[in-house]
Amino acid sequence: MKRILLATLLGFSGAALADGGLLQKECVSCHNISGPTAQTLNEAFAKKGPDLFYAGNKYRQQWLVSWLQKPRRIRPTGIYYGNHIKAGAKEDEIDAATLTPHLALSKADATAVAAELMKLKVHDDLIAKEKIESGTISKQMGEMTFNKFLGCMACHLIEPEYGGFSGPELYTATQRLQPEFMASYIRNPQAWDPKSWMPNKHLSDVNIQKLVRYLDLLSKESANAK
Amino acid sequence: MPNRYWLVILLTALSLQAHAKESAADNYKAYCVQCHGLQGNGNGVNIRDMSVVPRDHTDAKSMSGRSDETIFKAIKEGGPAIDKSILMPPWGGTLSDEEITDLVQHLRMLCKCKFGS
Lengths: 226, 117
Description:
The complex is a heterodimer of chains A (226) and B (117). Chain A has 226 residues and is mainly alpha-helical. Chain A has helices at 2-19, 22-27, 41-45, 55-58, 61-69, 107-118, 124-128, 139-149, 173-176, 179-187, 189-192, 205-225; strands at residues 85-86, 93-94, 157-159, 162-163.
């Protein structure tokens, strides 16, 4: 009982700190929380973590709260990928020794920081342009679209053991991301980050809707598998 | 004075453009290495599950079979524009024409080759 009380007290003091700027204190050394994003490649190569200054347009709050307590890698080659790969016997390999675990927060701090992050919404304009139509897609059709027709598997994992490594894993995308963000990023990555490693494939609206549905399906499956 | 205005706008536009142009080596490192590899030989970190492997840019034999125009088109519009795989993405939304022209020259340096030789 005493322990619980102590933990709660510590938790609260952490939360109080967060209000006063835990984000400022613990996160800005690696994350950009005020924008703008990198304007040159040299700035992009120097990034130490993903941009968070539009976090409120991008993430699901609930996901932030739980991930910040128990972070696990979603970008297999970290940031920036070129700093975490090395030439292998045949193909380039992930240089695991250079990837460090992410700091974890207490429940109270994670909750407070997530609430702060959700206020960062400088890209309401881009989000407002997207409209997600409800509908379904079969797993098979989704896979064909993602892998064969559009070539997204080259850089993204769609299963823990299938796909490429330079982009974030996508079989958990919908657990983490708002659907309008996914649609907008797929439509035009450069609108979010002019130096993004992801190309604009000039996709039709129909394909964008299909992809968002497919990612939704994948995430539900991976959540159920747990 | 409207004339002055235009001058300022023009100068700003020019300086922005100068600012925006990246070297071919940096563009290659940023965008191409993920598939074509640190050594440009087609063995990038992404290739494990790819059904068509990226071109070996150091291979003089295959690279000399392509004109500069064809290579430019492949980079700007992606593989399908020259009847090649969708896995080679289009970079026209990322790179300016000038930067793509520089990249073509960068590839000629990697293969130590020219079209037809």
